[in-house]
Task: structure prediction
Amino acid sequence: MIGPYVLPDDVFDALAAGEGGRPAVLLLRRARRSRNLLLLRRALDGPCGGAAEAAAGLLAAVERVAPEAARSVIDGPAFGTWAARTLRDCPAHGRRGCAGRDLAALTVLAAVRAAHPARITVPVRDGRLALPGLGTVTGLGEAPEALVVVEAAAGAEGMPGTSAGNCRVRVLTAAGERVLPRDPSRPGHGWQPVAVLDARHRGLTLRVPLETAAPELPALETASAGPAAWRDLLRQAWELLVENHPRRAEELAAGLNGIVPLPAPARGVASATSRHAFGTVLTSWPADPERLALTLLHEFQHSKLSALTDLVTLYEPGGGPRLYAPWRPDPRPPGGLLQGIYAHLGDLAFWQERSGSRHGPAQADAAWRLAQTRAHVERGLTEAAAHVRLTDLGTRFLERLARTVRDGDRGGDRDGAGAGGGSGGERLARAVARVQAGDEAVWRLRWAAADDAGTERLAALWRAGRPAGPLPAEDVRAATGAVAGPGPEFGRWAARQRGAERARPAREAADAVLAAPDRAQGWAELAAAAAEEDRPGADVLRARTELVRDLCARLTARQAARPPGSPDPLALAAWPAEPGVGPVPSGGGPVADAARPPGPASPGPPDPLALAAWLAGPAVGTDRSGGGAAADEEGGPGRDPQARGAHPARGSGHVGRGEAGPAPGRACGDGLAVPAESGSAEAPMAPARSPGPDPAADERPVAPAPPGPGGGFDAGAEPAGGGAPGQKTGVSMSQNARSPLAKTSATG
Result:
């Protein structure tokens, strides 16, 4: 029987603040093990069950004699990714080629660690037999599969360990037999072992495999940087982490279970985390210990949040499907946005420490990265609060996260290094804000498109000299394939901002835009300059750049196409008749002065600064659905929207993509109840059959279930997107649901 976990309030709040400590990581690790076992049960009940049955039986047999050996495989880098692929996108459910067969390769490690006799058939691909956690047998030719035989040494059966002499591993194919070295950690003819990296400093030990044999993970052979180089780099990075981030180092020691080397990109470092492989970091060669330490902090944050969302629901379906994340060049779904925000808390802690402990150019670089990371997190929080349908628990989560950012802002800046540290800090904050405003403008020009009918309506209202009214709906396109950054031109401009005292004058930037309206870099400079000068409509230039550009182009084209002195029919249609005004001529000739619309009559192209100020008249949000102003976000009770000016360049206001208003709050409960393994320890190898969810829905959370008893979060029944199989992510803890940004201002 599956029982409940209890996630105490203080543990949840500590995780939300970015850390959690060793106890929280161990709890998340146990919860993920339970999830993996339930996924195994689903796989055995599904179309791939027959192909995985023999391997599951071996794993259960090992668990009976050496539980830790079995758990090390279930917790390992490859198990969760195998289960997800088997359940979601197995290419062939037949006996041959079925993903279920790959479980056999994982169980060999359990048998070897337990010195448990075994005979299991394992697939061979491209002449290679990959045994995750052990190594790879090469040169097997065209053989489609191999029989792996584990023979325990006399008296060693059931004695866990991987030391030399405990067992012998034989690999048999139609072409012959291979015998692995007695110590599988040593290389041999046709045998490439998985290296084990270890580091120890001040009594804290980190021991992880350099996993190059996991078929479900995009591993790279360690030819460019061998195990010795990785081991030396990890030891230096570990010393840095233990000295400067001891609490996070304890988390890594408890939860990090593998490093998967990736191919190196053209520049920088590539790193990633699979949500199905808790505690596994995928990274290219970092080249220096500081970069490796930062990568481990960042990627392990992803693992923590993925495991937490197995247990609780932070957001509901709906909201913006493609959102702006300043650290990414592509639109992100709600789950991806929250993941990025949380992962950057690791970066924030890292650069906070480095900016205070370094000197000279290194300190200046760390201070820039700290300010930029803080601005990224704050902007991400703004986007999440406005466009993610957070549950009560999700709101609480972001509140705690925002508090961490605020506390770091107040207490971490030294000698003007950060955004709040004297004149130097203010200059740095302005530079970061310029880059961020420009980045968002370029992002919107690339991904967002304004509604044509709505833009045409605005053009008519502009010519008629009337207020703009609600902004039209936007459409953010989905990214397909690999997505590159904003390009070298923007990169050069952004680099110049670090040494710039101020932005280019907004008037000059606007003139440059009019001269080259299709140049994205010009709009980036204009958005940055307008924000720095606090121009009316600066928020529109940054958050609806595509609308200002399209409207400017539409007005310019219509101005050029209309004969001088002739009325604009769209402006006339938008201009209502008033008492005492005669009929409007219909023959296309000049309109009488008394009946002429009061709009601008200048024959030149419209001024983008004036257009933005006109669009930003009142504080209304973007209507993302096309149904009018975002009344729920900006026009709800308790708001005091600014009066909109009746003509361009009059009045001011702040308009963006909507800001979430405060919600009523309630008192806090006692804890979170989420599923645990059976009994007092782990779930059985073959728990009661339960269908569980489709792992493809892991990033699609569902609405909370009714509260359970005991004042906790009961997640012990039905599964939900983002929750573990056999669980419900119901929320019975209420809390103060104020906006997490109540005291956090977004830089830029």
Observations:
- The chain has 22 helices and 17 strands.
- The first helix runs from residue 9 to 16.
- The longest strand covers residues 145-152.
- Residues 567 and 596 are 8 Å apart (CA to CA).
